[in-house]
């Protein structure tokens, strides 16, 4: 009479392997090779997710890199960038609540100006809580007929953020 060998016990080195052809689970002492245990479809899905994630992260970082509100210049540049992007919510995040009525022009139904060649400099009247910048630019869009090429931007420090409290010429 033939005796059946005792069932083999799994050790730490054994690996469960899924056969790609038949789908059965096999016990193997061979080292794990990823192509053998991940079906072809999963490999492509994982690869696609990695490629897509890498592409989107590069785009997102470039597209959402908004200037910080920690300096007067950063807040001012962010305000101009939000204006160019027609992003009212972002624009208002750079403006003090008391000055938001001045942003009535920033509505979807109106034409927004586009600012290029923007250069901002401190006017020398800055303190630890107030700042005054003069920004030079080339404007197009709703400002195209306006001969002005500069704005004075007045900011106030609220906690850790510099917010625009007013703007104008002179």
What is the architecture of the largest domain at the second tier of CATH?
A: Roll
Q: Nearest-angstrom radius of gyration? A: 31 Å
Write the CATH fold name of the largest domain.
Nuclear Transport Factor 2, Chain: A
The SS-based structural class is: alpha+beta
How many β-strands, per DSSP?
6
Side-by-side strand order of the widest sheet: 3-4-5-6
Protein topology:
Blueprint: E1 15-18, E2 25-28, H1 34-37, H2 40-63, H3 72-84, H4 88-93, E3 114-122, E4 130-140, E5 150-158, E6 161-168
Antiparallel strand pairs: 1-2, 3-4, 4-5, 5-6
Describe the structure.
The model is unreliable at 55-62 (pLDDT under 50). This protein folds into two domains: 15-63, no CATH class; 72-168, Nuclear Transport Factor 2, Chain: A (Roll). With 170 residues, the chain is an alpha+beta fold. It contains four helices and six strands, in the order ββααααββββ. The strands form two sheets. The chain has a four-stranded antiparallel beta sheet with strand order 3-4-5-6, covered by helices on one side. A two-stranded antiparallel sheet has the order 1-2.
